[in-house]
Amino acid sequence: MKNPALIKNNIPENSCSLDMDEKIIALAAGEINKYEERISILIHILSCECCRLLFEDSILLQQIDEDNYSIGSLPLIQLKIKGSRVIPSTTSASHTDRAPLLSIEGDESAEFRINHNNEEITLRVLRAEDGVDFDLSANDKEAKFYLIGGDGFNTAFQYNSIARFENIKPGKYALTINLKEFIFIDITED
Amino acid sequence: MINTFTICLMRYIYFSTINVPGIMDNNSGKNLSPEYILREYSGLIKKSIKILAYKYLNRADPFLLDDIEQEVNLRIIRGCLNTYRGEASLGNYISSFVVRSTFLNVITKNSNTHIYSVSDNDEGYDDYSADVVSPVHRKMTMDHSDVITDRITIEKIISEEIKEMSQRQQDIYQMLIVEGKTQVELSEKLEISQSTISEHWSKITQQLRNALLKQIPELKITIGTDYEKSRLN
Asked: φ, ψ for residue B154 (rounded to 5)?
């Protein structure tokens, strides 16, 4: 028989005043090499409720297989900048399956259609001065686009049915409108 | 007619940039940019949320789990991993710290969420608040003073109390604390799941706490400070 127990406001704050979180996680994973350090952390766990719960949950979360950390079927678009041209890869399986290429216009732009969490997104890549521009459109006119790269992230809304990210330099990017599913875009320069 | 001011305003409204510099993982030497984390660890994040939902929520609302996943990813792209020090592996840090803290924050703020804890007793579920987070434990957590307790005495009490526990609990303590085995080694050797190990550990901790409090009542105000003063390296 399962007895529900409401414990709102009874979970201790998930922070330890001694910044022990990583040591607790490492102990649960068997990543602390010295016995002396392990026993010291154990003594702390006995005194600190939030660290005890963190330790138990860390053990629980260890059941996730490291080999399954990433998701293999995410859409990936690979682009190469060569002079004034933008060349999409035509060999990537995930590219063709999940983000089909619609058109290439004079080698200076390429257009993709992507099914993104039941939302159809059209991505048009245009050669720009320092890299490329992304012109995006979605059926949901209120959609907020996130472009996440090495230096942070940009956000854009649609205006006249187009959201634009400008002068995107070669690198690796993640594009999303719901922060849940991602379209990964790799841009290289020849 | 659109003037320059309007164009600038439109750009401000429809396009914005937030810079979050990536950090280096000292263990792997890789640049931990938010994009890299999302690409490599999106599966881990989804699975961690499911495991925590199984532990803490009876019937998880899929929309709530979506909210949690979005919140985790938002924290990552805003640079929450800048606090990562490299003491634990990155995957374990993401699941146990970033995902878990976000999960607990979201569900405790959601007024309609009921939280449960799975136990291996006959009842199936424990009242997590009434028993586990006892007033004694709260006092131990909250009250750290400058009184120093002899660490050797604490270790001796722990080792004596461990002998009173079941063989399975002794094995878990031996492999996890004394030998420092990984969870995979522990699970394979004892042929039990991490879920069961976690539940055993909960009982081990409670028994050890009770033993310590019984023999050294003042310990409740000394352990945290003692740890800091005896910190190794």
From this structure: -65, -45
Instruction: Write the CATH number for A125.
Output: 2.60.40
Q: A25 vs B22: CB contact, 8 Å cut-off?
A: no
| Parts of chain B with a pLDDT under 50 | 1, 117-148, 221-233
Q: How many residues does chain A have?
A: 190
Chain A residues inside the 8 Å CB shell of B128: 5, 7, 10-11
Alpha carbon distance B139, A71 (integer Å) = 43
pTM greater than 0.95: no
Domain with A55, as residue range(s), is 21-67
In whole angstroms, give the CA distance from residue A30 to residue B181: 5
Specify if B2 maps to a domain. no
The closest CB to that of B224, out of A44, A152, A163, belongs to A44
Q: Do B177 and A26 touch (CB under 8 A)?
A: no
Angle at A100 between CA A99 and CA A105, to 5 degrees: 120
User: What is residue B135's predicted lDDT score, i.e. its pLDDT?
Assistant: 32
R_g of chain A computed on alpha carbons: 23
- Asked if the Cβ–Cβ distance from B183 to A148 is below 8 Å, we say no
Both B153 and B73 in one domain: the answer is: no
For residue B204, is it within any domain?
Answer: yes
* Average confidence (pLDDT) per 10 residues, chain A, 190 residues: 35 60 92 92 85 90 76 76 82 55 69 82 89 92 88 89 92 90 89
The range of the structural domain enclosing residue B133 comes to: 126-229
ipTM for the predicted complex comes to 0.83
**Half-sphere exposure of B34 toward its Cβ, with a 13 Å CA cutoff?**
29
Q: Is residue A147 part of a domain?
A: yes
